Amino acid sequence: PSLINPNNFPAKLWLLVNSPCVHSIHRDAPGEGLLIDQRLFKCELLGAGRGCAMGPNSDRAVETAGLFKTKNFASFIRQLNLYGFCKSVSGLEGSMEGAKPGLMGADGSSSAGPLHHFHNPHFRRDRPDLLIHLKCLTRANKVKLGASLEVKCLPPNSFQL
Amino acid sequence: PSLINPNNFPAKLWLLVNSPCVHSIHRDAPGEGLLIDQRLFKCELLGAGRGCAMGPNSDRAVETAGLFKTKNFASFIRQLNLYGFCKSVSGLEGSMEGAKPGLMGADGSSSAGPLHHFHNPHFRRDRPDLLIHLKCLTRANKVKLGASLEVKCLPPNSFQL
Amino acid sequence: PSLINPNNFPAKLWLLVNSPCVHSIHRDAPGEGLLIDQRLFKCELLGAGRGCAMGPNSDRAVETAGLFKTKNFASFIRQLNLYGFCKSVSGLEGSMEGAKPGLMGADGSSSAGPLHHFHNPHFRRDRPDLLIHLKCLTRANKVKLGASLEVKCLPPNSFQL
DNA sequence: GGCGTTCTAGAATATTCGTAG
DNA sequence: GCTACGAATATTCTAGAACGC
């Protein structure tokens, strides 16, 4: 019944975090969240070619070209929220701990953008089976899902203790 | 009872994907789907001779001439949907893995059109016997087929994990 | 109350037909409809740079860059229908009578694409004041507009007598 | 009546904008 | 400041409906 549509946002997100060619977004250490480098993300995936170290002949330009139609980082954040992701105000800033290697320029200028930490209980590294619970939370879909669990955000480890 | 009419759409489609002369449409790697190059398709099969590298003396112009009456790519898509094919926007874009060779100009300009990926569980490379299940899904036919399997789209390998 | 949002489709359309830099879409002779050259439109406005006579340094590339996010001509047609435009199957084919000059290549190959004729009683050349009646006909908006006049298409001069 | 072609509409997600908290 | 969300439009994919052969 509820199969994963490869055209929709969750599938794209899963593709990105598992792609060795994408350097702007990946999992955090516990595997329950996402770490997103805003500047790199705009370069790699939103077509902001300027101020970015990669050229048009980059390998990753192929696989992820046209994945999103927007050029606004805010729209990507809106998608995350629509699918139940919430921001964690962790202390990390400007450093990609556990980050994939590469793409760092000689002066390190291409990274070091604002770093965002999001998480979603249904987006775990080892649990692709939970992806079917990621629904676009439109008004209509919320009604369908019933007045069931109205758990909002912020409960699960908003601070890493 | 249910024989395959060579004049109907499924038979034509089977002919196309198995023809060595047709370069705009062929199977994907798993053999369960179709890859269609929109620009090439319009040139080869819909009579849009302009902007296309092939001349009127091309060999493939003979075999497939007049296969379709339409000149609109959208009408071809409507047929695909009517026979139960569904689109998946897989990650491949502009790369034809397992593609047939040829027709690519020196600058590659004649290909590289928008690439569409469709699939249908009854249109498998090694299973011509399943073609009899491809029915034109008109209102009347849907009623005949009963409220039986309401499987819509996306089942076959919708996500490669 | 009902002001025209310059970011919405009707305003963009009005901009296009009145721009001297856009050659793929303009008004028909009576000023009640639109004539759209599909091939030119895809080149000028949908980013199909290939097979098009204009280069990236073209003047019109500036004004209309990023007006639409889609690359599919079908999506543009969907917008036309959503705003109440209907297609007229007039007799003209491949000729732009009353067309703006320019952009025609030496061999005339850059034009001569499929020509579409649409019209809408609220999109008249001399009546920008009617634009406020162009509403996105979503389900919700239709309900708001009430079960009032259910006039569909084709009434207004479907054939030019 | 079945099938192909065409035009329009439904339905769901994607994108944008504004704003409450 | 700034996060999350409502609401409206935009885009995509599929289906309905009408018509001709």
From TrEMBL, chains A, B, C:
Keyword Transferase: no
Keywords associated with the record: DNA-binding, Nucleus
InterPro entries noted in UniProt: HSF_DNA-bd (IPR000232), WH-like_DNA-bd_sf (IPR036388), WH_DNA-bd_sf (IPR036390)
Stretch forming the signal peptide: none
Gene Ontology cellular component list: nucleus
Localization in the cell: Nucleus
Gene3D superfamilies assigned to the protein according to its UniProt record, in alphabetical order: Winged helix-like DNA-binding domain superfamily/Winged helix DNA-binding domain
Residue intervals of the HSF-type DNA-binding domain: 5-135
Recorded family membership: Belongs to the HSF family.
Official protein name in the record: HSF5 protein
Keyword Nucleus appears in the UniProt entry: yes
